[in-house]
Amino acid sequence: MTSSPPSARAKRASDASNAESAAGAPSRAKRGSVSSQDALDFSSPLDVVCGVDEAGRGPLAGPVVAAAVILDPKRRIRGLDDSKALSAKKREELYEKIVERSLSYCVASASVEEIDRLNILHATMLAMKRAVEGLALTPTLARIDGNRCPQLSVRSEAVIGGDALVPAISAASILAKVTRDRMLLELHAQFPVYGFDAHAGYGTPQHLAALTEHGPCEHHRRSFAPVRVAFERLGVKVTLPGGGRVAAVELRKDAFGEDAFGEVGEGPLS
């Protein structure tokens, strides 16, 4: 994590926010694909905005990773986009620029154990909360990719498709994706039979075949249906902490046209 001391701009943003609250200033509702925790005007140029995104909701193995980024308007980063639309080489290049030029950033995660205990949605919200709270510079507004926000101590705004629309969210998407891919490369070194270096834990045919042949490892998510099925083939009954629920997944095409399992919902363990 890196950061810089709070700037005068951040202080002005905080003062302006407090003054608006005290005066009971009216707010404007955002239109389009944006939702918010409260009915405040999110368009203030004085806001210190962090973008937040995650990587790894759909895979069958590994943690879910989230990042929060506050970009420096004086140090523009060209080429920011949804991480899934970028090549691995381009993501790595942009990762270094984001780390170098951002006012502050933080990358956090929720473990496989937390995913199995809380479910993948709540674990994702936890990772996002950790990322925002880990910033050295406190934002006045967090813009979250997707249709819902974690519970934060600062104002938050959900932006559907924000990883392709909001530069700070794009930057967070890239940090989260690169960090998680690096984690899965480390797992591959420990468990090469699963091919984590090729699919980053997603439910590709290669991964499913390895699950069938070798069974799951400690880094597989027991709350995901294909992993549960693989355990049952070995005669192991899956019991999740706290009466957790198994996530249902379906075979889809990923961003690169490859077959991959993606989360579609949850059902009770039976």
Written account of the structure:
This protein is of the alpha/beta class. The protein has two domains: 8-186, Nucleotidyltransferase, domain 5; 193-268, no CATH class. It has helices at residues 8-23, 88-101, 112-118, 120-133, 162-165, 167-190, 196-199, 205-214, 225-233, and strands at residues 34-36, 49-55, 64-70, 104-110, 141-145, 155-159, 245-253, 259-268. It has a six-stranded mixed β-sheet with strand order 1-6-5-2-3-4. Strand 2 (49-55) and strand 3 form a beta hairpin. Helix 2 packs across helix 6 (167-190) and helix 3 (112-118) crosses helix 4.
User: What CATH architecture label of the largest domain applies?
Assistant: 2-Layer Sandwich
Task: Work out the oligomeric state of the chains in this entry.
Answer: single chain
Structural class: alpha/beta
How many beta strands in the DSSP annotation? 8
Rg calculated over all Cα atoms: 20 Å
Number of domains: 2
Strand content: 15-25%
Binned, the helix content reads 25-40%
- CATH class category label of the largest domain: Alpha Beta
Secondary-structure element string: HEEEHEHHEEHHHHHEE
Uncertain stretches: 1-41, 247-270
Mean pLDDT over the full residue set: 81
Region (Disordered): 1-38
Organism: Trinickia dinghuensis
Cofactor: Mn(2+); Mg(2+)
InterPro entries: RNase_HII, RNase_HII/HIII, RNase_HII/HIII_dom, RNaseH-like_sf, RNaseH_sf
Please give a quick description of this structure.
The protein has 270 residues and is α/β, with parallel strands linked by helices. The chain is 38% helix and 20% strand.
